[in-house]
Amino acid sequence: MRKKIIFFNDILKNTADILSKLSFKEAPLIIRDIYGRIRLAFDREGKDIREYEEAIVKEWSNLGSYGEHEGKKVLSRDDFFDPDSIFKSADILDYQVPETGNTIRILDRPITGQDWTRLASSDITRIGGTSRLVFYGLKGGVGRSTAMAILAYHLAKKGKDVLLIDFDLESPGLSGLMLPPDRMAEFGIVDWFVEDAIGQGNEILPAMMSICPLSQAEGVTGKIHVAAASGMNEPAYLAKLSRVYADIPGKEGGIERFPERMVRLVKALEEQVKPDVILIDSRAGLHDLAAVSVVGLGTKTFLFAVNSAQTWQGYRLLFSHWQFYPAIAIKVREHLKIVGTLFPETNQESHARSFLEHSYDLFSSTLYDEIPPGSDSLSPDVFNFDIGDPEAPHYPLRIKWNARFQEFSVNLLSEKILTHADIEAAYGDFLSGAELLIEEEYL
Amino acid sequence: MAKVVDFSGASKRHYHDAELLLTNSRIPNAGHLFGFAAECGIKALLVSYGLQVDKTTGDIIEKKPFKYKTHINVLINNVQTFPGSPAYFQYVQMMPKLMAFSNWHTSHRYHEESSIPGSHNNWHEAAKEVIKMLDQALADGVIV
Q1: What is the model's pTM?
Q2: Does A92 lie at the interface with B, CB-CB under 8 angstroms?
Q3: Exposed site from A3, A160, A211, A377, fewest CB < 10 Å?
Q4: Interface pTM (ipTM) of the complex?
């Protein structure tokens, strides 16, 4: 008989099935290695788990090639020098098997992407009470950076000091949008990462910040600070970029991972500028750099979306990943807000309805709580919203497509070529919604 | 000949014994074993990232002059230049104190006690990093 092939999709479900069949006194930790292969680890001494080994090995054929590997299939404390680094790892998560609702404890060891399920440490969540709004999109070219520039201008006109950080390092553009070439700072974010790796990060911090000329425009009383991806006359961007993601030796021993370094940089910039609001341009797509911004840095995250099948499918890939890990999902969902962008000039009514339906369907089938029949949907413990609730994460802040904002530059604002009325017409809904979210955070 | 070489297992064994010696104040030999523990742990990493081994015995195959089939005080100079992937260097970054072994020497076993450097604490710390690296590599399925 031909051997049944088991694919990655089935591994965790099959593992959960094996565990419920064997029903151990204590639930083992499931370690899924970088190849996706599975081993079980018991927080016990080796001699205490020998009795389990035979039963487990017998069942392991249900994992196909993902269960066939050299070395032990069952690990104990004895297999590790520092067992707590494994058994008490902050990366252990409860994984909910969709088909059965069973929960298993898993330590996933991917090569990249772990930051989509790694929450911010508590000391970054509210440094100085400053709001950090992340601008994220699955795809580029949907007007994220322009929206960020317009919001910065809007807030600065109200006297707020705003710090813009360009973390879209693979596709940097914020400086081009906000700064004339001769106003760029000497160093950029990529410089900080390479200099910091050899202990010189603090040396360049004071020379990383530019002031956007919009800060001097008529009616603007706040300052717009920009931390751009690169410095002025950048000679070696790619050589630096290719070193940015390094983990480095930690000050207290061990290593400091890239996401922790990124958080440290934001803290340092924040301490230097002391802004009222921080706007972060995130990398687009399902990349680690975006994960850190969205999950680890943002107090609010704007999810930019156009009403297309690929947008909704893409967001569903991300949301379903969170859905597997309920502890992460309930934290992340609270700071998401959809932004409907490039809203067309024709068929507006059907477009608006279709967008709202898709967005609601996305959230309600992944991140919203199900309301059991007969219970009260208004209960504060239930994270669920009506389709028409404007405060719901799925309910879009809208940016209307407007040809005047194509090839946007801040000169169009400072020279009043783009007027208050132009801005209001295209961005009015987005600006007032964003402002409300910032105010809510200060409450 | 059977596959007798198990770099990862040997590394942990030497480390464990070194700590036993240390707690019993047998310091020169404890320090000596920390050097062997680190050497074996690094060899386990090198092998998993492509250093060629004899399929029968599991030992490293290398022509002279040896860069990798060597003791820890030489090995540490070649870890950074090993042609490993970025993933290999992720593990190397977990061991920033390796250069502590530059004054370790295998000939210390012949020495009279007072001529052995009093560096056992540094060697201990550096070897600990290697053993912790092996923990992570085991969980990752890189070294089994």
Answers
A1: 0.85
A2: no
A3: A3
A4: 0.81
